[in-house]
Amino acid sequence: MSAIQLTDIVKSYAHGPQVLHGVSMDIRDGEFAVIVGPSGCGKSTLLRLIAGLEQVSGGDITIGGQRANDMAPQDRDIAMIFQNYALYPHMTVRQNIAFGLELRRVPRAVRTARAEEVAAMLRLTPYLDRKPGALSGGQRQRVAMGRAMARDTTTFLMDEPLSNLDNALRTEMRTEIKELHGKLKATIVYVTHDQTEALSLADRVAVMKDGHLQQFDTPEAIYDRPANRFVAGFLGQPAMNFALARDLPGLRAPGDSIAGLRPEALSLHGTAPGGPALRARVTLSEMTGSGVILHCDTDAGRMTAVTPRHALPPDPGALWLGFDPARVHLFDAATGTRRPAPAAQPHTANLSA
Amino acid sequence: MTRDRMLTLGALAAGLLFLSPVLYSIWMSFQTANAYYTGTLDFTLRNYAVSIGDYGFARYLMNSIIVSGLVTIAGLAMATMAAFAFARWTFRGGNLLFAAVVATLMIPSHITLIPNYLTLARVGLLDTYAGLILPAISNGFAAFFLRQYIRGIPRALDEAAYMDGATPLQVLWRVIVPVARPAILSMGLFIFISEWNNYIWPLVAVSDQDLYTLQIGLARLYKLNPGEGSIDWPLVMAASTLTILPVLLGFLLVERHLVRGITMGAVK
Ligand SMILES: Nc1ncnc2c1ncn2[C@@H]1O[C@H](COP(=O)(O)OP(=O)(O)O)[C@@H](O)[C@H]1O
Ligand SMILES: [Mg+2]
């Protein structure tokens, strides 16, 4: 059992401002939870509180049903992977991986076998006798993973473990971490500022901003029903388009609403389509490989649309961006909170022609 | 002549210049007193036999090794633990305490001589090994130096060890000490040599000849033959050679580790 419950967690550092303002999360046993948010929003702080490396200023942490506020890190039975790996420079890879077992008085033969088994899983066998200084970035990262995996624990904390890797390696390690989660059936709390990583890894994503938890839900729910304008804009690549709801045709919404439209929810037309649409002029197009990102000027402001390359309209100077009003997100202009989905106005033709 | 060769020759000359008094005294230690004063050449091991046999230098050597060795080990242990605490923990009064440690660096040792003497006299530790060793164990400079070094070690290493299940003492012993090894070894060498050369404290703290250290024994060699009007310099030089030899050997042993430690830190 390694569920983690955070209740109204408050944290302020000595001689510093308050960093966390009452964060509550209920991380289930065996869940892969990803905490995502812009740099400085308090993700690492939250993770370090769970680890016991920092003390909460208020609220409660429960790990596996046990109140953990005053437990020392070494008593929490949690493995952590640090952003810069923090490998012991004077120990070989084998010793690094086995250190946690050694501290727990596991017999030498057992811990060596375990270290070698883990190293094999991570393709580190040829490097067992090297010291961290003689490894590449990717290898160091895997040693850091190995050190956590060798421990006989089911709770892992990872603080941006892939952020120091190049793109190809990052994608590869992402897959491996996901597979690992399936194999170990472990509870993982994973911190990242990369929304792609968050959506692809998580069972549930926690979006944070300025020390406040914005939303904690499945990637699908976060993506399809963002709780507020910040969450809507933070997740998704390219980012969601925002416009005043009253500037969008065919939409019935309170006057002070902000409408959000995902780029992939916009359809491209050479001539005015049957449903609601915006007249647009392409100002910039970006090739992404399989598709193209089009930056357009419309009557409702700048919009981004995506399209496969073969579906590019012939005249980028004049085209139409069609949308389904049911796929428009509405947010309160003042507070940014989500409003109920808009209804399409009945019997309206395309008005802005 | 190439530039490189000139540099090499220059370095060699400078080295010989520094080495010459040492070499001269070693050479002199193999002369008889007679040959020395008449300016003739001779070779004898008698001076070593006499200093060890008649003047108790074997005993002094052992005392010096015991005292300097224990001062080094105990001093390093104290300084390392203090440095770890000062570098890694914030506690009430910690800054004040550290300021006090730094302040001790500014007190000349001669000022503490008499208070230390009176204290040890009162607890009856004069004329004991403990009396020679205890006052030298607390070493503000070592604590200060090692604290600065430990502060340069990423705290994430400590944290990783705590997550791996280490207690604070295990973090110190299994992570901090090995990583700080070059600094600790350098400090150890420094403490050992300072203590080895310490003259004034053993002089006041000990009157029992069985507890003399090499430096005291060496000084006594002058005083022992005042009536003869002349000092037996070859004998003094033999005793001096006995005094510097262990330090030289010790340095050669540790030096390899120092250099390796320094380069290891550079590439990390
Ligand atoms: N030890 C500390 N002392 C004071 N302020 C800190 C400390 N650690 C972090 N902070 C502050 O707390 C805020 C959140 O930091 P952090 O949790 O590291 O953010 P994130 O990991 O999301 O980038 C930042 O404004 C940072 O400056
Ligand atoms: Mg961080």
UniProtKB/TrEMBL annotation, chain A:
<dbReference type="InterPro" id="IPR003439">
    <property type="entry name" value="ABC_transporter-like_ATP-bd"/>
</dbReference>
<feature type="domain" description="ABC transporter">
    <location>
        <begin position="4"/>
        <end position="235"/>
    </location>
</feature>
<dbReference type="InterPro" id="IPR003593">
    <property type="entry name" value="AAA+_ATPase"/>
</dbReference>
<dbReference type="InterPro" id="IPR027417">
    <property type="entry name" value="P-loop_NTPase"/>
</dbReference>
<dbReference type="GO" id="GO:0055052">
    <property type="term" value="C:ATP-binding cassette (ABC) transporter complex, substrate-binding subunit-containing"/>
</dbReference>
<protein>
    <submittedName>
        <fullName>ABC transporter ATP-binding protein</fullName>
    </submittedName>
</protein>
<dbReference type="InterPro" id="IPR015855">
    <property type="entry name" value="ABC_transpr_MalK-like"/>
</dbReference>
<dbReference type="InterPro" id="IPR017871">
    <property type="entry name" value="ABC_transporter-like_CS"/>
</dbReference>
<dbReference type="InterPro" id="IPR012340">
    <property type="entry name" value="NA-bd_OB-fold"/>
</dbReference>
<dbReference type="GO" id="GO:0008643">
    <property type="term" value="P:carbohydrate transport"/>
</dbReference>
<keyword id="KW-0547">Nucleotide-binding</keyword>
<dbReference type="InterPro" id="IPR008995">
    <property type="entry name" value="Mo/tungstate-bd_C_term_dom"/>
</dbReference>
<dbReference type="InterPro" id="IPR013611">
    <property type="entry name" value="Transp-assoc_OB_typ2"/>
</dbReference>
<dbReference type="Pfam" id="PF08402">
    <property type="entry name" value="TOBE_2"/>
</dbReference>
<dbReference type="GO" id="GO:0005524">
    <property type="term" value="F:ATP binding"/>
</dbReference>
<dbReference type="GO" id="GO:0016887">
    <property type="term" value="F:ATP hydrolysis activity"/>
</dbReference>
<keyword id="KW-0067">ATP-binding</keyword>
<comment type="similarity">
    <text>Belongs to the ABC transporter superfamily.</text>
</comment>
<dbReference type="GO" id="GO:0140359">
    <property type="term" value="F:ABC-type transporter activity"/>
</dbReference>
<keyword id="KW-0813">Transport</keyword>
<dbReference type="Pfam" id="PF00005">
    <property type="entry name" value="ABC_tran"/>
</dbReference>
<dbReference type="InterPro" id="IPR047641">
    <property type="entry name" value="ABC_transpr_MalK/UgpC-like"/>
</dbReference>
UniProtKB/TrEMBL annotation, chain B:
<keyword id="KW-0812">Transmembrane</keyword>
<comment type="subunit">
    <text>The complex is composed of two ATP-binding proteins (UgpC), two transmembrane proteins (UgpA and UgpE) and a solute-binding protein (UgpB).</text>
</comment>
<dbReference type="InterPro" id="IPR000515">
    <property type="entry name" value="MetI-like"/>
</dbReference>
<feature type="transmembrane region" description="Helical">
    <location>
        <begin position="96"/>
        <end position="117"/>
    </location>
</feature>
<dbReference type="InterPro" id="IPR035906">
    <property type="entry name" value="MetI-like_sf"/>
</dbReference>
<keyword id="KW-1133">Transmembrane helix</keyword>
<feature type="domain" description="ABC transmembrane type-1">
    <location>
        <begin position="61"/>
        <end position="254"/>
    </location>
</feature>
<dbReference type="Pfam" id="PF00528">
    <property type="entry name" value="BPD_transp_1"/>
</dbReference>
<feature type="transmembrane region" description="Helical">
    <location>
        <begin position="233"/>
        <end position="254"/>
    </location>
</feature>
<keyword id="KW-1003">Cell membrane</keyword>
<feature type="transmembrane region" description="Helical">
    <location>
        <begin position="171"/>
        <end position="193"/>
    </location>
</feature>
<dbReference type="GO" id="GO:0005886">
    <property type="term" value="C:plasma membrane"/>
</dbReference>
<comment type="similarity">
    <text>Belongs to the binding-protein-dependent transport system permease family.</text>
</comment>
<feature type="transmembrane region" description="Helical">
    <location>
        <begin position="129"/>
        <end position="150"/>
    </location>
</feature>
<keyword id="KW-0997">Cell inner membrane</keyword>
<keyword id="KW-0472">Membrane</keyword>
<dbReference type="GO" id="GO:0055085">
    <property type="term" value="P:transmembrane transport"/>
</dbReference>
<keyword id="KW-0813">Transport</keyword>
<protein>
    <recommendedName>
        <fullName>sn-glycerol-3-phosphate transport system permease protein UgpE</fullName>
    </recommendedName>
</protein>
<feature type="transmembrane region" description="Helical">
    <location>
        <begin position="59"/>
        <end position="84"/>
    </location>
</feature>
<comment type="function">
    <text>Part of the ABC transporter complex UgpBAEC involved in sn-glycerol-3-phosphate (G3P) import. Probably responsible for the translocation of the substrate across the membrane.</text>
</comment>
